[in-house]
Amino acid sequence: MMETTRRKVMSTLNSRYIYGKVPLLHTVVFLVELALLARLVVKFNAYYGDKPILTMMMTNALLGGVADTVAQSLSAIRRRKSRAGSLKDDFISIEIQELDEKGGYRPSETLSSTRNAPPPFDFERLTRFMAFGFMVAPLQFTWFQFLSRAFPITKISATAPALKRVAFDQLIFAPCSLAAFFTFMTVAEGGGKRAVIRKFQDVYLPALKANYILWPAVQILNFRVVPIQYQLPMVSTVSIAWTAYLSLSNG
Q: Which pLDDT value is given to residue 134?
């Protein structure tokens, strides 16, 4: 009975929009994530001083979740617009499944709601993104520490070490992290060796090219200005837009 109730609630949430544009369930998930992030931000320095790696893992996981939620929301909004071309009454579809005076659903509204419902929020996909962020954080943390030691930034010498960090990061870490990302996501979705190879053939090189458009500039600013304890959160924050871009560009 609990499972039936849960499914009904999820179905109701997933079939409704806010002002006919933003999926309600996606928005609820996004707000929950923001609340958790706000709590983490308030205590970040204390948590980082006590357990830096675990703090980075939690931060990375939450920001990865936000990134995927944004990507899913943008995809749902785009799909909504593509389906709404033939509809004229699309402003308050959040109320599209209201009961009529006799206690039943209005057939035309139910049909409209089903046809124009957003794609269901994919909690499994969200979990995969959060899990990847959680697991890769220790490696990123160690990598940033290595770059900090190998190319120290001082008052006398700042720009050259920052550029060396960017070069090492983009030529070594970026290609490897993208490969790890696509491999992990494909395997976690149930794909095998062939699926991984196909994924690399389809999206790896375009993603790597897009990476070189965005990340060198971000990392120069990151390494040159941002304190080391905030460098990984900075990367994860920019990754919100990066992940949304990848999701939209790949359909």
A: 95
